[in-house]
Amino acid sequence: MSAWLDKGAVIFQNFMANCQPVFYRLYERDEEIVDQYGNSTGNYRPIYGDLKSAMLCVSPNKGTSETEQFGSFEQYDRTATTADTTLDIDENAVLWVDGADTDGPWNYVVKKVARWKNSIQLAIAQVKVSPAQATAQEEPDHADDAEV
After folding, report:
1. How far is residue 97's CA from residue 21's CA, in Å, rounded to a whole number?
2. How far apart are CA 89 and CA 8, in angstroms?
């Protein structure tokens, strides 16, 4: 394990053997949905940013509230931790965990983020994404950007 002494306190970094690549997209905005005639439907869909990745230590499952950082907050399945305090994941991010195909819909969402001075812990929940939600992964304008 990688560790060093800094003014008497031992600071641990990520032990890479316990980490896995997690892909994510950050929420950017909602976009109004229009019908085939260009009329507003009154519904909105989320638009997410570019696909990013991070090496996170993802737990196999959730523990009990007596030992969990998120206390009795029960709306999550697993936790993910990192020593990278610059990680920009927030509560609106969608995740691809456990090798999920990033060409398909996300399989986890972030429920809570706990930041500390030298680590970040995420409470994440597994989700089933409908085909309608999956189309919101990318900007709709990107489909027209294909080269001729």
Report:
1. 8
2. 30
Q: How far apart are CA 55 and CA 66, in angstroms?
A: 27
130: enclosing H helix or E strand: none
The hierarchical CATH code for the domain 10-138 is: 2.40.10
Between CA 116 and CA 83 the distance in angstroms is 9
Cβ neighbours around 25 below 10 Å, total: 23
pTM: 0.73
Summarised one tens digit per residue, pLDDT across range 94-126 is 999 999 999 889 999 999 999 999 999 999 999
Q: How far apart are CA 130 and CA 50, in angstroms?
A: 20
Q: For the chain, what are the domain ranges?
A: 10-138
